Amino acid sequence: MKPSNTLTFASALAVWVALFTVSLQPNAIASGGEHGKGKVTFTRDIAPILNANCVSCHRQGEIAPFSLGRYADVRKRAKQVLEVTESRFMPPWHAESNGEFVDEHRLSPDQISTIKTWVSLGTPEGSRTDMPAPPVFPKDWSLGKPDMVVEASAPYTMAAEGGDVYRCFVLPTSLPEDRYVAAIEVHPGNNRIVHHVIAYLDSRGQARKLEQKMSDGQPGYVAHGGLGIMPTGALGGWAPGNLPHLLPDGVGSELEKGVDIVLQIHYHASGKQEKDQTKLGIYFTKTAVDKRLRILPVFAPLNIPAGASNYTTSGISILPFGNDVSILEVMPHMHLLGKEMTVSAELPDKSVKRLVHVPEWDFNWQMNYMYKQPVKLPISSRVTLTARYDNSAANPHNPNSPPKPVYWGEQTTDEMCIAFLWYTVDSEHLTQGKPVKDILDLLGGLGRGGGGTGGLRKLRQNAGPSSGS
Ligand code: HEC
User: Fold this and answer.
1) Are 305 and 445 in a shared domain?
2) What is the CATH number of the domain that holds 446?
3) Does any ligand 1 atom lie closer than 6 A to the CB of residue 54?
4) Are 348 and 444 found together in one domain?
């Protein structure tokens, strides 16, 4: 045989092998086969996904019910892991988003299909040498030592029975002068039970009065999911998995002299008696503040008939007159009947910009969403809010059985329809002596210490049973 023939045969074989391999590939993928150089394994492919997206909560002593750190833990729950990731129930992230928010907890379609492949292959472990080192979580404050730490006067003891608890703790700041805050960091005293925390402000001493009326000998007061008072401001919220972030340089959130922080904590029942004393770390601004972080609440009235399965309401808020603004964060808020909320901005050219859309509201995962790039809204824009509620018996979260008419109120059995927007005014330059007054300054409302809740009171009357509609 001539060498050239041998060569031809060899190359034909190579082509055939290549073709065969190529033709195998799509099949293998469809039936959950190859991934990269070899099969999908736990140690090489799955552990890195879980470490980056799940283990912050799913580890010993944390809020999630089991650990997902080791092969043995994950193998026995593999089907469930696939179910909750495919349905996007986990990791908890309730906004529809495309990378516009800081710390977006969402798996990519590729990551979900890798998990699917791994499960269909029978959950192979793979080589132990591929196993990544377990992630390291900050034991202490992740932003470093706070400038000020506030906490309840004593630990709170949660009973073994009785389910979830909502409790508000009044934390005096005793500040001798007004300060600007750059960040807050929540340090749960007991990670097994602290489900979410919202830090409100009260400059009128209303929350102190409620605390004094409590007679169970424990710090704080019972709030049934609400706050029991109309806050004068809010510093923000936290849920497990949320990392604290500093405001951009030159922006600060005002903390008035003498104001109280009201820490509303949702405790998740663990079935055992538990103790907690959550700390709130406060970081003051380190550079001169040029712009005040302001808060704009957007409300919609509520009057939800008993049994209504698709009650819709909407509200509009104009932006503080005469100025372009930049929105830094948004936090939707509803109670147990809430299903969906959309907050949008209508620009002067009539175009609509979506600020946040929560397609499936979950009261247990209330979050504030921080934009990677502040959203610029020109002068004369309007913010609109639309929300949907299910007050039917078919809603498993309905706190009333049988359903009752539901109005605006503080209790978990009442409802709320509100979105908080945190923003700065572009033309404000405090360092150049150019403060800007906004609607809330003029009303003396949220965060300004005055009696500016007239609008809210009116809402309640318009929507409430006393309006006699
Ligand atoms: C921010 C904290 C957090 C993160 C991150 C998180 N989980 Fe969870 N997970 C929980 C909590 C809390 C529960 C208990 C149910 C609840 O309260 O919603 C839970 C429940 C589960 C359940 C049980 C669901 C059921 O129906 O009982 C599975 C499975 C699960 N998580 C898987 C995952 C996976 C996989 C990831 C990562 C892709 C993940 N979780 C990320 C907090 C978290």
Assistant:
1) yes
2) 2.60.120.230
3) yes
4) yes
56 C-alpha to center of ligand 1: Å?
A: 10
Tokens representing 236? 């923000």
The answer to whether 49 and 115 have CB atoms below 8 angstroms apart is: yes
Task: Judge if the beta carbon of residue 80 lies within 6 A of ligand 1.
Answer: yes
Total structural domains in the chain?
A: 3
pTM of structure: 0.81
Domain co-membership, 323 together with 461: yes
CA 377 to centroid of ligand 1, rounded, Å: 36
On whether both 174 and 254 belong to a single domain, the answer is yes
Nearest to 401 by CA among 392, 411, 409: 392
Answer yes or no: do 394 and 423 share one domain.
yes
**Ligand 1, pocket-test mutation among 56, 57, 68, 268, most atoms within 8 A of CB:** 57
> Closest residue (by CA) to atom 19 of ligand 1?
64
Centre of ligand 1 to C-alpha 193, Å, is 14
Distance 91 CA to ligand 1 centre (A): 6
Give the mean pLDDT per block of 10 residues along the chain (469 residues): 37 35 33 55 97 93 91 97 95 91 92 97 96 90 94 95 90 94 94 90 94 93 81 85 88 93 92 95 96 91 96 89 88 93 96 96 87 94 96 95 90 85 94 82 48 33 30
Q: Is residue 300 part of a domain?
A: yes
Question: If we measure between CA atoms, which residue out of 338, 172, 198, 187 comes closest to residue 276?
Answer: 187
Residue that has been written with the tokens 């073994």 in this structure: 160
What is the per-residue pLDDT across 122-168, written as a single tens digit (0 to 9) for each? 999 999 999 999 999 877 898 999 999 999 999 999 999 888 888 99
Residue 6 lies inside a defined structural domain of this protein: no
Concatenated DSSP letters of 301-357: --EE-TT-SSEEEEEEEEPSTT--EEEEEEEEE--TTEEEEEEEEE-TTS-EEEEEE
Q: What is the pLDDT of residues 206-243, one digit of tens each?
A: 999 999 999 899 999 997 767 888 888 888 888 887 78
Residues 217, 125: one domain?
Answer: no
Residue 256, SS3? coil
154 is in which domain, residue-wise?
148-284
* CB distance 90 to ligand 1 below 6 Å: yes
